[in-house]
Amino acid sequence: QLSCLVKMVTLHGIPKDLDSYPKDLLLFLSPSDYAATGSCRQYFASVGKANLDLLQRDSSERKQLLLEALACLKISGTQVNEENAEILGHLVCDLGEEYIRSSGENLLEQLSQCASFLPDQEEAIKSVISSGNTTFGPPSVWSASTLNELGGLIPIFDHSILQKIPK
């Protein structure tokens, strides 16, 4: 339905008020389509707020969105800074374990909003959390507010992490 709606909305060119449309609609536009109304950074900041699950996780469209976002933000290695993580938003859910490991806590806030993870992503997240090299510190010093901040990641914590969290 959204794909069809995009065709209707863009029938006479890209509308100037595209930002006023639902973010999910942008998933079906390319950055080059959007370029007429704003920057690619602005486009991906909006796409990062969209419901990515409207596109299948392994779909070529979703993979292409991530590749184009990384190119737009000039992320050439696997290190994503906090500002770019915020722009990527939900797109961080598709970053591989190498990005999670080398970006460390920069991705945790966005990752905590992901619906699911691949096994290698889970291992990378657990490794970053267990290291204690985050602003949260090691699990042994966490409080209830820490757990609130990490909310969406708690389901992937294994026994080795959970047993270290103070009661």
UniProtKB/TrEMBL annotation:
Q: Name one Pfam family in it.
A: Mesothelin
Organism's domain of life?
Eukaryota
Q: Which GO terms describe its cellular component?
A: cell surface; membrane
Gene Ontology biological process terms in this record = cell-matrix adhesion
> What UniProt keywords apply to this chain's record, in alphabetical order?
Cell adhesion, Glycoprotein, Membrane, Signal
Where would you find this protein in the cell? Membrane
Q: Which family does it belong to?
A: Belongs to the mesothelin family.
What is the protein named? Answer: MSLN protein
